């Protein structure tokens, strides 16, 4: 645990994070996690955070050294997608029992499990995750992994992020440290080129990176490694030869980006693929960084041509939705997808943002949202479910975009809702992703179910039952808009067909 403590202190001191730099030395030592509220859900543990970051590496066997429940907690709880290997979705655990713990069989069982995986699946690597139980009983997973790697001629990578070490966010960073210590830089590619980049913190949820890659392909830019979405072990092992990097979700892997810059001189920027202008900006910055690292300047012109072409196509597609969505009010309650980019993107098509959470936003993000909304009254850190319900049932928003945790608040308030967090079913990245997001919002708002669920129940229509008006402004407002548009425009007709 001593080396783990040192590692934790190291990741708590992050020069590339503004929030971290804003703290004094004492606050920095305490890390990023907020104190937990008794009775409230605590969120994922460090092991869970490490698993989230690493499991999308698709050809690796992910072996959890723990009693069965840890793997059950963390297994594939996001919608990352693979274009090939399926091994990452096979669940491997040493399934420690009380008897194993009492008899000190943990390390032996782990070694045997690695051998079984090697014989049955022959993966390019096995990632071994420590957990609370195995950290507490003192199993030395680093030593077992080292011995197994020598014996089986296989990369066996210890991921030292037991749940008790801290929060999910800490686990994200410890996973990045494991990649830096044991994977990146271990393979020399024979095809490194001036247009190679890394994309960090992109999880390929619902396959959304596949909406971005064709754009990069058209520019002749090769993604050396996308970490972790749809990644292969050997790509990550040779990621140190990329010329530039983009960090998509800065809170998760900023330490990885900074250390790759320090060790291998790979400059990086933080960007987003959500929204039309943000996607364009990201492509521009990638091209600029590559030119700074020696690529031909002509890539800048090619990038501008591609941006102009793609923006024109996207706007043409979005026009079909403008009439139905113009002026519709959106409440954004998400920490996952970058709020500022989504805010910007929705305002681009004329929607009104009535509120956005900034719980996981950096100081820079908040400043951007303030500039876009021209007002910080619409920003909130966190809204209790009761307040969300009140806001929605009073008709202050036509749709809520959030994660699954608050979906039932919206549904109880009979308000359309769309999942835009990690469990989302549709890809929203890039130009096509923006069109898809707007299409899904249109489907949700104009779904005929809303006029039905807001009708009075038959038993309330009996003679003698007081004829009540719809109980909320929201019901009146949105029913009106559904009636106004339903069946009158090709967009809405198409939407209803798709719902069916
Ligand atoms: S690592 Fe610890 S906190 Fe995390 S799931 Fe396992 S037992 Fe629970």
Automatic annotation (TrEMBL):
Protein's GO biological process:
protein-containing complex assembly
The role this protein plays is: This protein may play a role in the biosynthesis of the prosthetic group of nitrogenase (FeMo cofactor).
Q: Where is this region: Disordered?
A: 461-500
Q: Where are the transmembrane segments?
A: none
Q: What family does the Swiss-Prot or TrEMBL record give for this protein?
A: Belongs to the NifD/NifK/NifE/NifN family.
Under the heading Pfam families, the entry gives: Oxidored_nitro
* Protein name, as recorded: Nitrogenase iron-molybdenum cofactor biosynthesis protein NifE
Q: Name one GO molecular function term.
A: nitrogenase activity
Domain annotation Nitrogenase/oxidoreductase component: ranges: 45-443
Phylogenetic lineage: Bacteria, Pseudomonadati, Pseudomonadota, Alphaproteobacteria, Hyphomicrobiales
Question: Which NCBIfam families does this one have?
Answer: nifE (TIGR01283)
- Quote the pathway field: Cofactor biosynthesis; Fe-Mo cofactor biosynthesis
Enumerate the UniProt keywords alphabetically: Nitrogen fixation
